[in-house]
Amino acid sequence: MTTSTRGAARVPAVLVLEDGRTFRGRAYGAVGETFGEAVFSTGMTGYQETLTDPSYDRQIVVATAPQIGNTGWNDEDDESSRIWVSGYVVRDPARVPSNWRAKRSLDDELERQGVVGISGIDTRALTRHLRERGSMRAGIFSGDALAPEADLLARVQAQPQMKGASLYEEVATKEAYVVPAVGEKRFTVAAIDLGIKGMTPHRMAERGIEVHVLPATATADDVYAVDPDGVFFSNGPGDPATADGPVALMTAVLERRTPLFGICFGNQILGRALGFGTYKLKYGHRGINQPVQDRTTGKVEVTAHNHGFAVDAPLDKVSETKFGRAEVSHVCLNDNVVEGLQLLDQPAFSVQYHPEAAAGPHDAAYLFDRFVSLMEGQRA
Predict the structure, then answer these.
(1) Whose CA is closest to 58, among 115, 6, 125?
(2) What is the mean pLDDT of residues 345-365?
């Protein structure tokens, strides 16, 4: 529940973590209460793309960069139709936005969309706490929602865990739509929306791909009704262990040997389809500065991440699966987490990060070209 109040910056607010630690500050955005999993994002820019990324559904995002809101809010950089984070935590909000594209302030947009936030707290201490203790349930309370800390803590601890949460259908489109190719149409791709970001089909369209974005509940008949040259599985929120429907759909695609590309949640779905397990990371990877090595080339990329779960696959050997040989193609250099998979006997691969670069570096843009090459090879 949220209520919107002008002058929120003067309203006291408190962030309560499920282990009892609290941080007091001022309301930012809407005034009221909100609950979610507290996570931190290390990007120094790109907050608009972060806030509108459906993968952040039911998460309270802590910005590690000290000052947020300098460039305000524009009408071009949204990655979906709304803000998906359940709460936002910043240290030093910009008092006045300054950017030629800004239409309003970040504070105003958070308030307009009813997103409860908190500012003026020590986000360094909070980030260190989450690194040491792990991402955890949290609540932000301000205005009339304030109450004795014991009561607030009990309300936080009553919230559901992220592990076991099935969220991808909450954020996915309900109706199919088409993103036309830019210039000459070369291929048709069926993209399964598990929380897709707007820039992703655009990156494919730039390469002459007509993208049919389908709901998360799409069946194999729905996919092949568009006569695709390839199938794409998007990013998305929640625990991949709950995604039996998308796993079954990907299995059907693999059985037909259609070129396949998955990112983030799609990488975890491919892992499950190949027989690997998934697990929850202690605090996840979120931000636009994560180093990943492409083991097929040895190249190191700086990449954009947003995930709290990972695939449990062996790094040191080629695995035998029911779809042929598979190997880990990419690995995070910070902690050796699996960041990509590829099949060696048919055209399918995935990565755990976001190559659409919204926001983020463009080091991984080649992955869309790799997908095009798979479709070219299959057509030949």
Answers:
(1) 115
(2) 92
Q: Do 197 and 54 form a contact (C-beta atoms < 8 A)?
A: yes
Residue type, 88: Y
Mean pLDDT (whole number) for 189-201: 97
Residue 69's nearest CA partner among 41, 48, 38, 43 is 48
Distance between CA atoms of residues 51 and 199, nearest Å: 14
- Two structure tokens written together for 18: 């499920």
Answer whether 304's CB lies under 8 Å from 286's CB: no
CA distance 227 to 112: 41
- Helices and strands (H and E) in the chain: how many: 10, 21
CA atoms within 13 A on the CB side of 214: 24
Q: What is the C-alpha to C-alpha distance for residues 166 and 159, in angstroms, rounded to an integer?
A: 14
| Mean pLDDT calculated for residue range 172-201 | 97
pLDDT value of position 7: 55
Q: What sign does the CA torsion over 360, 243, 329, 231 have?
A: negative
Query: Residue 211 and residue 31: Cα distance in Å, rounded?
Result: 40
Spatial distance between the Cα atoms of 140 and 117, rounded to a whole number of angstroms: 7
Name the H helices within 41-148. 47-51, 106-112, 123-133
pLDDT band at 8; cut points 50, 70, 90 = low
User: For residue range 95-145, what is the model confidence (pLDDT) as tens digits?
Assistant: 999 999 999 999 999 999 999 999 999 999 999 999 999 999 999 999 999
Between CA 77 and CA 211 the distance in angstroms is: 20
Q: pTM surpassing 0.85? A: yes
Query: Please, which residues bridge with residue 191 across strands?
Result: 213, 232
- In three-state secondary structure terms, 342 is strand
CB neighbour burial string for 226-255, b if at least 16 within 10 angstroms, e if fewer? bebbbbbbbbbbbbbbbbebbbebbbbbbe
- The pairing of beta strand 12-17 with beta strand 22-29: antiparallel
How does residue 1 score in pLDDT terms, banded at 50, 70 and 90?
A: very low
Is residue 4 pLDDT above 50, yes or no? no
Q: How many CB atoms lie within 10 A of CB 256?
A: 12
Q: Are the C-beta atoms of 55 and 306 separated by less than 8 Å?
A: yes
Percentage with pLDDT > 90 across the chain: 94
Point out the residues that are catalytic: 264, 354, 356
